[in-house]
Amino acid sequence: MAYIIPQIEILTEQFRKFPGIGRKTAQRMAFSLLEFSNEDVEAFANALVESKRAIKECSNCSNISCDDICSICSDPERRNDLIYVVEDTKALMSIERVREFKGTYHVLHGTISPMNGVGPDKLKIKELLERVASGKVKEVILATNPTADGETTAMYITKLLKPYGVKVSLLASGLPAGGDLEYADELTLHRALEGRREV
Ligand SMILES: [Zn+2]
Question: Which residues contact 125 (CB under 8 A, 6 or more apart)?
């Protein structure tokens, strides 16, 4: 039977919960933790618990935020009539990195994914429609990732938005198919944002 240290096993199982972390890496992280000072371990544990407790969703755009309304939605310089719809906060951060955009966002928290059993009701689509129904929105830009699920989601939302008479556009192609906005370089992202096309 393999030699097991129960406490290392417990730690390893926790670290394995992170995406892309296999058993070996998780075990290495567990051993690394033993090298931390007691203060550092406590700071680490507190950061995990505190950030999870402090972070909630913006009641306007569903972006993760420490406040009821996120700093983007509460920024008076931002245009409320222009909304970028993104899959997650990581995509939002990519667009922010390009610094061309003065509108606001709507964070879906995923994509419609029949393969993974994710239907439209699991996403923040209803909240998006409520914003549009308020009558303040002029344009919605669908910036889901160029994957099959991302495109399905964009098409689905386009259909739902039609009756509201708002301008709906998609990002220009040029983003690598099957890719992730998060990993697009700034020039590619800039071009995709600039060259959006109305649907
Ligand atoms: Zn917000």
Answer: 108, 156, 157, 160
Q: What's the token pair of residue 13?
A: 């199982």
Report the separation in Å between the CA atom of 59 and the middle of ligand 1, taken as the mean of its atom positions. 7
Tokens of 169: 């556009």
pTM of the entire structure? 0.81
Contact assessment for residue 64 and residue 73, using Cβ atoms and an 8 Å cutoff: no
Give the C-alpha distances (Å, rounded to integers) separating 120 from 48, 65, 184: 30, 23, 26
Q: 50 CA to middle of ligand 1, Å?
A: 21
Structure-token pair, residue 52:
């999870």
**How far, in Å, is the centroid of ligand 1 from the Cα of 73?**
4
Give whole-number Cα distances, 19 to 46, 49, 56, 164, 169, in Å.
21, 19, 21, 39, 32
Amino acid at 141: I
Task: Give me ligand 1 centre to Cα 63, in Å.
Answer: 5
Q: How many angstroms separate the alpha carbon of residue 57 from the centre of ligand 1?
A: 8
pLDDT at 78 over 90: yes
Write out the two tokens for 64.
């993760």
Q: Tell me phi and psi for residue 59, to 5 degrees.
A: -75, -10
Within the chain, strands assigned E span 56-57, 64-65, 82-86, 104-107, 139-142, 167-170, 197-198
Vertex 125, ends 67 and 135: CA angle to 5°? 80
Q: How confident is the model at residue 173 (pLDDT cuts 50, 70, 90)?
A: low
